[in-house]
Amino acid sequence: MENRRSSHNINSLQVHLVWITKYRYQVLQGDIQLRCRDILRQVCNSMDIQII
């Protein structure tokens, strides 16, 4: 992971994202799950965000 540097500090931003539905309903299944995953990956790639 790359550190961001400025003249007075060094930053390493790491985020742990948990994406669940209200009351943990199982709505993201099948084709919807695959499409949401593809959209999330496309957005991350366009914003230069690394998914680990």
Helix content: 25-40%
Distance between the termini: 10 Å
Total domain modules? 1
Largest sheet: 2 strands, antiparallel
Mean pLDDT: 85
The secondary structure category is alpha+beta
**N-to-C SSE string, H for helix and E for strand:** EEH
Order of adjacent strands in the largest pleated sheet: 1-2
| Overall geometry | elongated
Number of strands: 2
Q: Which percent range describes the beta-strand content?
A: 5-15%
Number of helices: 1
Q: What are the low-pLDDT stretches, counting only 5+ consecutive residues below 50? A: none
List the helices and strands and how they pair.
Blueprint: E1 4-5, E2 10-11, H1 31-46
Can you put this structure into words, describing what you see?
There is one protein chain. The chain is of the alpha+beta class and 52 residues long. It has one domain (4-46). 31% of the residues lie in helices and 8% in strands. It has one helix and two strands, in the order ββα. It has one helix at 31-46, and strands spanning 4-5, 10-11. It has a two-stranded antiparallel ribbon with strand order 1-2. The longest helix is centred in the C-terminal third of the chain and has 16 residues, at 31-46.
